[in-house]
Amino acid sequence: MKSHIEAVTKKADVLIEALPYIQKFKGATFVVKYGGAFMDDPDPFVRGRVAQDIAFLEAAGINVVIVHGGGKAITRAMAKSGLKPEFKNGMRVTDAETVKIVEKVLNEDLNREICEMLSSSKSSPVSISGNAVFTCEKHMSKDADGNEIDLGFVGKIVKVDAGAINESIKAGSIPVISPIALDESGRPYNTNADVAAAAVASALKARRLVFLCDIPGLMRDPSNRDTLISTLKVSDVADLKKIGIIGGGMLPKVDSGVEAIKSGVRRVHFIDGYMPHSLLLEIFTDKGIGTEIVA
Q1: Which of 83, 71, 190, 89 is nearest to 149 (CA)?
Q2: pLDDT digits (tens, 9 = 90+) for 261-289
Q3: Which of 95, 175, 201, 279 has the most beta carbons within 10 angstroms of its beta carbon?
């Protein structure tokens, strides 16, 4: 009996710790970048935990917006079509044939799958093709010598239709947005999903932007979880880039997060998508479990 009382008391303590955050964030908008290896995990239980966290946020009165990626699924679809992926400067070269595959995988296959997953947790998702809300221009990368590299149909988002997204929020839905964008001529382009999520957060003046990652957050030593950087100031980012702590796949995430903060987003979080209920632990506890960037 005593152990039972202790167990339920601990649960009550967790709820009490979460209470001030629930009160503070009610009515706020959170943008969640859904991606990473866990997105492709064959175990539906892993993905289901994320759906439960999002359902909790919705039930707590938070307006949740999802922006998703899908790089691995695109690579698999390309292989089925006999196409070999090519990357330059870490970005997928996207020719006319490839962009058709990218558009189908992101707008139809993955977007529908995420919406179904959220629906199974009693959330109210609505599918929004990036084509409907993102306007882009052609993105040109550069090599080490400063020469331009043509990546094909790879876009840089220049405008977000915040009104269309807000209409879905007002209707009580969770917008689930793919990172496909159209140029002024109506041609589809593939865009970086991290950048797309930050653009949405900036346009909506979101209170929080959360990146679900494959790692716990930013670590001074990638092999040692104890070196996790819990809080990072925007002013410290440049120095961490110079010494290599921020690099690789985290670079576009951090850069996008910094731009979002400069555009009015309060805080940006990087958390481990594999950790059970990491989204709730980061948002509703005093210490959190990932890395947050603050102004």
Answers
A1: 89
A2: 999 999 999 999 888 899 999 999 988 99
A3: 201
Reported pTM:
0.92
Helix (H, G, I), strand (E, B) or coil at 112: helix
Q: What is the CATH number of domain 29-294?
A: 3.40.1160.10
The torsion of the CA quartet 65, 129, 33, 89, rounded to 10 degrees, works out to -150
Q: Strand 87-88 to strand 91-92: parallel, antiparallel, or no bridges (unpaired)?
A: antiparallel
Contact of 125 with 119, CB cutoff 8 Å: yes
Residue 72, Cα to own-chain centre: how many angstroms? 15
Sheet with 267-272, side-by-side order of all strands: 125-128, 174-177, 63-68, 29-34, 208-213, 267-272, 291-294, 231-233
How far is Cα 178 from Cα 128, in angstroms, rounded to an integer? 7
Higher pLDDT, 79 or 43: 79
